[in-house]
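One record is given unchanged without comment:
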Amino acid sequence: MLRTWFKGILTYRPGRLLGSISGVALTVALLASLGAFIASAGASMTQRAVQEVPADWQIQLSHPSDAKAVKAAVGKATPYTALEQVGYADVKGLIATAGGTVQTTGPGKVLGISAAYRANFPLEFRQLVGANQGVLVAQQTAANLHVKPGDRVSIERVGLPPSEVIVDGVVDLPNADSLFQAIGLPAGAAPQAPPDNVLLLPDAQWQRIFGPQAAVRPDSVHTQFHVRIGHVLPADPAAANQFVQQLAHSLEARIVGRGIVGNILATRLGSVQADAAYGNVLFLFLGLPGAILAVLLTMAIASSGANRRRKEQALLRIRGASVQTIIGLEAIEALIVALGGVVLGNVLTLAIHRMFLPGNELIGKSALFWTVSASLMGFALAIAAILYPAWKEIHHSTVVSAQATVGRGRKALWQKVYLDILLLVISGVEFWRTASTGYQVVLAPEGITTTSVNYEAFVAPLCFWLGAVLFSTRFLEGWMSGGRKILARMLNPVARELSGVVSSSLSRQRLLIVRGIILVALAVSFAVSTAVFNTTYNAQSHVDAELTNGADVTVTGSIMSAPSTRFGELQALPGVAAIQPMQHRLVYVGNDLQDMYGIDPQTIGQATNIANAYFVGGNAQGTLAKLSKQPDGVLVSEETVKDYQLKLGDKINLRLQNIKDHQYHVVPFHFIGIVREFPTAPKDSFLVANRSYIGQETGSDASEIVLMRAKGNPEALASRAKTVVSSLAGAKVTDINSTQRTISSGLTAVDLHGLTRLELGFAVLLAAASTGLILALGLAERRRTLAVLAALGAKKRQLGAFVWSEGLVILTGGSLLGVILGLGVAEMLVKVLTGVFDPPPEVLSIPWGYLVLLAAAAISSTAAAIFGTNRLFHRPAIEEMRGL
């Protein structure tokens, strides 16, 4: 009997069987692939975080005599690839004589490093001018003292007479926050910023100068080990963070009392762990609606055969079949769907991995967990879709039949308690509350950026999605019940004289019609929200990189070796679409040394994008025009405006260094606007002014930065630019692609292109299935009604009016609702993730090409279902009724 039943299922139900298998397969493949992307994104974030940390550990020794024992303990605790001893000394100040004037700084730090330090820890320094060994002065310190290679600097030691050194080079300290972190101090007790005045000496010279100071004032001198451990770490950020912390704890147990470990790598991985967790929620939020839709499609396909199953069970029970027998027979179909769906789903997953995730991500524990979980979900879905309804029918069919009534059904519980309205209210409140606090970047005590995450930010779009779907269901059911006349007028171009009859027919079948509309709306909203958000995300990560880099290609240098001296040669390079010089000077605002950028407001936009979000008021064109009209105008950052209580129109006296005497002189400016962001500028305090005015007041119109817009590949243009400026000391060329790969290991560093292609591919399939398949199954359930109409003399055109009307109502209603819902969800997601983007996007990026493809798939699927149903009209009505 089981064999006969199995054969019958394959012979007479291949369509519904394949539909159910496809639904399960889509669910399994989408969940498993989504999990693989999550695992891959975490591994990518871990790898980038490890590469960006300048030194994994900074171990502060209790006493220099402990150095040998601590070094041996490090080797026992973990393999390492680099270990350097660094001396730190506090000084009262630095003094230099330049241009006939004496310059003095406040307290500072002097470090002693070996000749191999820069090779082992290259991220700690960036060469600007002069030699890369010997006595090196930090860039800001050089500006404060007005020194250059060859000048003498006097170091005011603590408790001892000054000592003099000769400057060999000038360097930038890009990771000064971590280099000068306060190890072992509680949060809040450490200095909020690294020292402004820094010198670096060869280790032997540092020992000669500060060895005596250590004897006199041991509290002013200390020694550190900077360590790069072996990077054989777990791919998952959380596991890698735990592993690195365990290594540090192991070392601390070995050197107890001899030193304290500053675990920079663990701090960075902890930040990445938070980013990864946030990314997981984001990816799941984007992908789970697709999986839910696949589940609903499978359930809809299975429920479309409910009447057929009811009749089969009745026949079996009449012939004496027991409950166990009937359940066993139904289990055959459930097992076929489960096994077929899981196998097909895993095959699809494997193909997707090879297409979008080449490599060995499949064997990772995280990806394996997702694959197994998705397969179990597929089994559960098949059981829930087929076996549970059959069991319920057997146990309750008699009672249900006895209590069956004709008339209006009862409202669902969610309609009675107005759950849809409640969800929409919650969404509005949460959106208002968390729109600007979902994701914030902060600075950890170790000097490494971390994130402050508010997971409640996802409550608003989630409640909006659920509430909007339920409210739409309520509205459509009510409208189709009482709006027959309006529906008839809308259907008049298709149904003509039958519009009233067709409208009444659709109204009576409103539960099925509304179900089809909602499924189409869910499919379209999934596609639209995913496409719009991912497109905006990818576009904004490019904008973020351009803001950091400055332009497609940026050449930076110093005023002593200004890249603007090669402006003509750079402009003549192949692949240059536009080029603009930009000054970068240091200016005193009160006693605070800040960055000032000199631009030509009328032409700066030719080489780089100047977004409205850069300025308070949101009008980049108007702000730059205002700056252009006022030569002494200056745009001031929000933080500086707040610190100095500035008001628009105020006269500001700033101190700029004059090239002739290297002295800082007062230069008057007028405050005309507030700037939030600017290409290459820091996030906190900076100013933007007219390049011509700065050049006039400082005696030099040289530009330390040249911004270049590329016609083609920015990396190729950067390579050509390097050859032009290779003779300029300290000149550096960066391109936007390299910057985009290295600026962050946070959310915007995760490449969503593969995930986007995956989700959008599934979205097209689900949209086509929702429109065409659900319509076809619904029409198949009404074949008897159509056959009766044909037997009563209805013409093919009249029968077609019913079919076309139903198809258009489901397609247009679902598509319109889906587009509105999808855009709403995408807008909410972008808004609550404002802190991720720097700057935030001004408008959503709409992928019109993909939306056209989506519409074509939905229309084609609907048309195929309608034409397939119309073909049945060519068969004689009596023959069609016999087959039902």
